Amino acid sequence: MGLSAILFVASILLSSFALSCYASGTFSALEKSLLVTSSPKAGHVLKAGEANITVTWSFNKTFQAGTDSTYKTVKVKLCYAPISQEDRAWRKTKDELKKDRTCQHKIVSRPYSPSTNTFTWTIERDIPSATYFVRAYVFDAEDKEVAYGQATDAAKKSHLFEVEAITGRHASLDVASVCFSVFAIVSLAGFFYLEKRKAGSSMQK
Amino acid sequence: MGDIEGSPGSSMHGVTGREPVLAFSVASPIVLTDPTAKFDLPVDSEHKAKVFKLFSFANPHMRTFHLSWISFFTCFVSTFAAAPLVPIIRDNLNLTKGDVGNAGVASVSGSIFSRLVMGAVCDLLGPRYGCAFVIMLTAPTVFCMSFVADASGYIAVRFMIGFSLATFVTCQYWMSTMFNGKIIGTVNGTAAGWGNMGGGATQLIMPLLYDLIQRFGATPFTAWRIAFFIPGWLHVIMGILVLTLGQDLPDGNLGALQKKGDVSKDKFSKVFWYAVTNYRTWIFVLLYGYSMGVELSTDNVIAEYFFDRFDLKLQTAGIIAATFGMANLLARPFGGYASDVAAQRFGMRGRLWTLWILQTLGGVFCILLGRSNSLPIAVTMMIIFSVGAQAACGATFGIIPFISRRSLGIISGMTGAGGNFGSGLTQLLFFTSSQISTAMGLTYMGIMIVACTMPVTLVHFPQWGSMFLPPSRDVVKGSEEHYYVSEWTEDEKQQGMHQGSVKFAENSRSERGRRVASAPTPPYATPNHA
């Protein structure tokens, strides 16, 4: 009786720990303790593969000293603005961080330091055409998110910029495509014509 | 050697409805072998093979089989090639969910029309040129993917590639010129099932190709375009093989042979009329839309679904999606087989119940797939769903040959078109709007499957009954002859055009199940093809 009571209490405690772990895996539980700015002016259109983005981040000194004692790494990411999330459930914002798909492209990962950090990034060629903002997540030693900062406001309306992706098309691909298509049609027509001629000449015989 | 006794064997002869109906009526259940013919396989008097030797490539029969099913397989590969790459394509072309859904609808809609036209083409040019024309003329559409720059281009190209699914008709037609009626069911079922596997194989092939091409240095937005060249080349290669190695008939090609003129051709308008005025035709058009149709829809959405919902890599999602389509290897033949086994004991009622059970089971597991939150459960539900839906396809064609003898071709064609139409409708309703998540879409699709399978309870044959009602007690109305001969007018009967139907009626007595004491083995028994 005593043993089962202990096991029961232990399982309640364990599950409550698990629940609390779960609750802390949300975006709303994160401290907004980083100040982040990004270089593109609002509404700017940048070309993937060519244009640069310069990101700066630092610890927001208005927070109590010691808040950043657990901060270990900073990952800066490129995140979709609400307009680019419309009708695209694969980019949806969710509070639970494991399920959140807002920030899909990593810019840089650096060890945490409270002073001003800067990084200039050339927009990679696999970034799709969309409207973006920059956000930095801070991770602790267990690689769990503990804080963040973003270059836009809470409603994600300011300091947004656009990226124009590469098309992925190449002149050489287009030419190859036309060549093979022509080959297909010509060989079909050729066979047809040759066989009709053979049938015609054999009937004449 | 030896005939495959008691196994599926109904002729798809007349798949277009334009073929001479009386061209070959098997005089007796025993088909005599032509001793003068010099072929690798034993043949009947028309030089159609009586034996199905799966691993032979002997000219012309088995070679035709392999050319035919591989061509059909290739077209399935190219039609669904975009599906596993959608996570990349949607970023490259800035697609919304609506665009992705509309492209899926477009990919299955084109072939509704092309399959109907292909029947006439086969009649005029022969199945060899029918197949070669479709596969070579759609090759440029596959290569066109390299040009696509936005949603409208993407939708247009997928629509055009979808035309290639007309090879289903050439495949079935070509088989029926090469194989005897006793085994045509097995042959056609195997050919169609293995062709359909292309929809599964492509989910494996395309992500692998994409990954390989990326390793060679291409960026993602270029790599997927290059990957499309492979299905394009397959089209061209198969087209050339069909033209050089194939032949229309066992004795040669259509153009070189003289057509025999001593068979009476049926009138298209009559055949069409008896097809559309038979209510059972329409029930099966609806039903096939919710067995074959959901299979096509799922081919289009399942890889993206697993990629997004369970955060899998593209290749992993592709492997899971592939198992759905590859189940066709066995599931479809199984459905036909189950229908045959049920018919031996319970006759047509057994076939109807088998179809209802398999298709409803598929629907239930589709609902469960949509509601599964963990990966292993979702995969399990998906596999059972695939077996249910594909076996239902096989079971459907266990019943179709009995709906009408005169209009078998058109009814089969309409049913096939119904499959594509159901697919387009389902994708439009449940997988295009942003209001419905893909998971909910799958659940709704499952509910619709269960609902749209209910009409099979209404299918009633006066001579055999239905799922719940017994056959008619009337001596005349309750006979098979009455049902099949009623498709002919008095004038036509006077000309003796109905003889084939009479023979068919005799042989169809097996559908009474165990009530038949001594029915001869029917030459037109149950096909498990699609």
Automatic annotation (TrEMBL), chain A:
It comes from the Eukaryota. Residues 1-23 form the signal peptide. GO terms for molecular function: nitrate transmembrane transporter activity. InterPro entries: Transptr_NO3_Nar2 (IPR016605). GO terms for cellular component: plasma membrane. The chain crosses the membrane at residues 175-194. Keywords: Cell membrane, Membrane, Nitrate assimilation, Signal, Transmembrane, Transmembrane helix. One of its GO terms (biological process) is response to nitrate. The keyword Cytoplasm does not apply. Belongs to the NAR2 family. Involved in nitrate transport. This is High-affinity nitrate transporter. It comes from Daucus carota subsp. sativus (Carrot).
UniProtKB/TrEMBL annotation, chain B:
Keywords: Membrane, Nitrate assimilation, Transmembrane, Transmembrane helix. It is found in: Membrane. Residues 490-530 are annotated as: Disordered. The chain crosses the membrane at residues 67-89, 129-149, 155-175, 187-206, 226-250, 271-292, 312-331, 352-371, 377-403, 410-430, 442-461. Its main location: membrane. GO terms for biological process: nitrate assimilation. Signal peptide: none annotated. It is a multi-pass membrane protein. Residues 520-530 have a biased composition (Pro residues). GO terms for molecular function: nitrate transmembrane transporter activity. GO terms for cellular component: membrane. Belongs to the major facilitator superfamily. Phosphate:H(+) symporter (TC 2.A.1.9) family. This is Major facilitator superfamily (MFS) profile domain-containing protein. It comes from Daucus carota subsp. sativus. The lineage of its organism: Eukaryota, Viridiplantae, Streptophyta, Embryophyta, Tracheophyta.
